[in-house]
Design a protein that fits this description.
Elements (H helix, E strand, L loop, with lengths): L1 H21 L3 H5 L3 H8 L2 H18 L7 H18 L3
Helix pairs in contact: 1-3, 1-4, 1-5
Length: 89
């Protein structure tokens, strides 16, 4: 389950990076519409639902290793950022 959560976090981080770049091209690519740029970078119909389901399952099945959930999600986010930065995705 944590692998799927990490993948969804990776997709959200990738979309955030794309959005940061697309903001500079709102007029030329998206006719000034922020919502068009947002929907181009985040296909949330699928990924939002998957993140919610995987996150809920992860919280429900979290083993008691003494680490807070934020630490697990933070480490997963950092790993996904590293994968994106190195081009390993």
């Amino acid at each position: 389950i944590s692998h799927f959560v990490a993948l969804q976090i990776g997709l959200l981080l990738k979309g955030t990076c794309y959005l940061a770049e697309e903001i500079f091209h709102l007029q030329s690519r998206h006719h000034g519409s922020f919502w068009r740029a947002l929907s181009a970078c985040f296909p949330l119909r699928w990924h939002g639902l998957m993140l919610l389901v995987c996150g809920s399952a992860y919280v429900a099945l979290l083993d008691e290793d003494g680490q807070p959930l934020g630490v697990h999600l933070g480490l997963a986010s950092l790993c996904q950022l590293l994968i994106l930065a190195l081009g390993l995705h």
